[in-house]
Amino acid sequence: MTVDDVAVYLDVPKSWVYNNHKREGIPFKKVGQQLRCRPNDLDRWLDAQGAR
Questions:
Q1: Phi first, then psi: what are they for 45, rounded to 5°?
Q2: CA separation for the pair 46, 43 (Å, rounded)
Q3: Residues 6 or more apart in contact with residue 17 via CB below 8 angstroms
Q4: Residues with Cβ < 8 Å from 4, sequence gap 6 or more?
Q5: pLDDT tens digits in sequence order for the chain, 52 residues long
Q6: CB–CB of 27/38 below 8 Å?
Q7: pTM of the model
Q8: Which of 8, 13, 16, 21 is deepest in the core (most CB within 10 A)?
Q9: Among 17, 49, 20, residue whose Cα is nearest residue 9
Q10: Looking at residue 11, what DSSP letter applies?
């Protein structure tokens, strides 16, 4: 998933994803110059957010 896809999925602005992905621990990997996230990794991350 791209940053745009993640923003839509989380229902947040794209700028929020860029500004907070490191602090929040969103499981992105760099592919070239772009951030990508696997849907399953994002779902696991979301599930873990409920435990905070």
A1: -60, -45
A2: 5
A3: 3, 6, 7, 10, 26
A4: 14
A5: 999 999 999 999 999 999 999 999 999 999 999 999 999 999 999 999 986 5
A6: yes
A7: 0.88
A8: 21
A9: 17
A10: T
